Automatic annotation (TrEMBL):
Cross-referenced SUPFAM superfamilies: P-loop containing nucleoside triphosphate hydrolases
Keywords of the record: ATP-binding, Nucleotide-binding, Repeat, Transport
Single Gene Ontology MF annotation: ATP binding
PROSITE patterns per the UniProt record, alphabetical: ABC_TRANSPORTER_1, ABC_TRANSPORTER_2
SMART domains noted in UniProt: AAA (SM00382)
Species the sequence originates in: Microbacterium kribbense
Transport keyword on record: yes
Listed name of the protein: Sugar ABC transporter ATP-binding protein
Domain ABC transporter: 14-525
């Protein structure tokens, strides 16, 4: 069902009217009208900091919106603000990027902990019967899983399926016990770690949930996923709705324009900045890693020229995602040496401070946990690694520091442009810009990137690619680990493919394409492997 056909015949499953949310003097949402029609899949998109999560948090009962903001569920007025947990009684359910599962519990236990009928009952739980029930329930969504398996042992796709099926089940029992129509599933970037074919499987589940009676709001920066899944797209910019259109009538370029606010000259959908090659063939490698072992890795060699961007691709569990942390010393390597310019050292003896001292930087995937200090300001986070260079005779040259911070905020387009804002209050993508900026300020010799543009909007992606490319031109070598193979194909000079802890192929030149990478990560060691083009 789409907006226009539904609009004439029915009331929306959910409607926000004149929603305004302020944080102090800052207006995060301004007079927003947002409708979700019955059994519709609608995309909510917008740049980092445009207000998507703020809107969701109003419905989750976390944010208190301004007076005059209104919420209607199935046409019935519901008073705002909502209390924490009230969303369940309204038939709303949320699946965020972290999926909200308890990894040390089984699939069945994860279903039961959220089930009020079970947690409120004093009767003993018949685990066998519950396992059977959950197995059948998952099967009804075409998900074939052992309900006794621990969540941490499941593949990422299976974990996402469990989280979505659990949310769908909450909505189904809400509809059943209230004889209600409607109910809305909010999916906030649940696909970021999944390769494309697995994303399609997940979309199949979402379509089934919608066919069963729910609506879905899909929040994502992945516009190709948005185009494939959604029937309508609503665009937020700077806290205001600037577009609301059936997906069929929107072309990709127009969508990017709506999101960013200006025409994007030649910016493709990944924001691809093109290859960054500035390395000089034939010169000795700036960095040579030999025999790296630890975690899943079983002896990996990597060389990087000055100015070169080398990608690492692999499925989860291939070991690719461990390399940046082992090289930076935040996880201990069992074996391996690294030569960086003239110095050679044991990687297992590296600690993060010694890595920084050698000119190695790390932009981790979990930026909130590992990449920043949420309780410090944007300004403090941006200059944390270089502040001592601004001291003369024991005194900080504050005006120079201030100038540096303003320069960072402008170059990266960080919003809000407020050096005093707490880092923990920044939206995900804006926080990532500051984390990358912080490392570029030290002028690293080797920058290790893990999923650097995850959760970053199209416009900011292009800015990040551009700034990293400029840094490459000054000789910085970059090791780029990502599950986004289109991105790797766009930004890297070469990509090494890891399977089962070993490098099994290397792609470059014409052969470096998303499709070839997708094939290579499934090619087992010993099969015919690619050679440099
Ligand atoms: N509790 C808060 N206090 C102060 N400012 C906040 C708070 N929560 C959000 N903001 C600000 O509101 C704006 C909107 O943030 P929000 O998290 O909704 O963006 P978003 O569209 O979800 O971005 P992203 O795509 O990066 O996740 C941002 O500028 C953010 O810094």
């Amino acid at each position: 069902m789409n907006a226009s056909s539904a609009g004439a015949a029915t009331v929306p499953a959910l409607e926000l009217r004149s929603l305004t949310q302020r944080f102090g003097l800052f207006t995060a949402l301004n007079d927003v009208d947002f409708r979700v029609w019955p059994q519709e899949i609608v995309a909510l998109v917008g740049q980092n900091g445009s207000g998507k999560s703020t809107l969701v948090k109003v419905l989750a009962g976390v944010n208190v919106p301004e007076d005059g903001s209104r919420l209607l569920v199935n046409g019935r007025e519901v008073a705002l603000p909502l209390a924490g947990g009230q969303f369940r009684q309204l038939g709303l359910s949320f699946v965020h990027q972290d999926l909200g599962l308890v990894r040390t519990l089984s699939v069945t236990e994860n279903f039961l902990i959220g089930d009020a009928r079970i947690t409120a009952s004093h009767r003993p739980i018949h685990w066998r019967a519950e396992d059977r029930r959950i197995r059948d329930l998952l099967a009804s969504y075409d998900v074939d899983l052992d309900p006794g398996a621990l969540v941490r042992d499941l593949a990422p796709l299976q974990q996402a399926l469990v989280a979505i099926a659990r949310a769908a089940e909450d909505l189904r029992s809400y509809r059943e016990s209230n004889s209600a129509e409607g109910s809305v599933l909010f999916l906030d970037e649940p696909t970021v770690f999944l390769p494309e074919d697995e994303v399609e499987f997940l979309f199949g589940l979402v379509r089934k949930v919608v066919a069963g009676g729910a609506s879905c709001v899909f929040i994502s920066h992945d516009l190709s996923a948005v185009e494939r899944l959604c029937e309508r797209v609503v665009v937020l910019r700077d806290g205001e709705i600037v577009g609301d259109q059936p997906m069929a009538g929107v072309d990709s370029e127009r969508l990017v324009e709506l999101i960013v606010g200006t025409a994007q000259d030649g910016t493709d959908r990944t924001g691809g900045g093109g290859r960054t090659s500035t390395s000089v063939a034939g010169t000795p490698a700036r960095c040579a890693v030999q025999g790296l072992a630890g975690g899943q890795l079983r002896g990996v060699d990597i060389t990087l020229q000055g100015g070169e961007t080398v990608g690492l691709a692999g499925l989860l569990g291939s070991g690719a995602e461990e390399v940046p942390y082992l090289l930076f010393g935040s996880r201990r390597a069992d074996h391996g040496t690294m030569r960086l310019d003239d110095a050679t050292f044991q990687i297992g003896e590296t600690e993060p401070p010694s890595a920084v001292a050698r000119g190695i930087g790390l932009v981790p995937a979990d930026r909130r946990r590992d990449g920043m200090v949420p309780t410090l300001t944007v300004s403090e986070n941006s200059v944390i690694l270089v502040a001592d260079k601004f001291a003369t005779f024991g005194r900080l040259r504050l005006s120079a520091l201030r100038e540096l911070v303003h320069g960072i905020l402008d170059r990266f387009g960080v919003r809000p442009r407020d050096p005093g804002a707490l880092m923990g209050k920044l939206s995900g993508g804006n926080a990532q810009k500051v984390v990358i900026a912080k490392w570029l300020e030290i002028g690293p010799r080797l920058l290790l990137l893990h999923e650097p543009t995850q959760g970053v909007d199209v416009g900011a992606r292009a800015a990040i690619y551009e700034l990293l490319q400029q840094a490459s031109k000054t000789g910085m070598s970059t090791l780029w680990v990502s599950s986004d193979f289109e991105e790797l194909a766009n930004v890297c000079d070469r990509v090494l493919v890891l399977v089962d802890g070993r490098v099994t192929s290397e792609l470059s030149g014409e052969r470096l394409t998303k499709d070839n990478l997708n094939t290579a990560v499934f090619t087992s060691p010993g099969a015919t492997l690619g050679t440099p083009a």
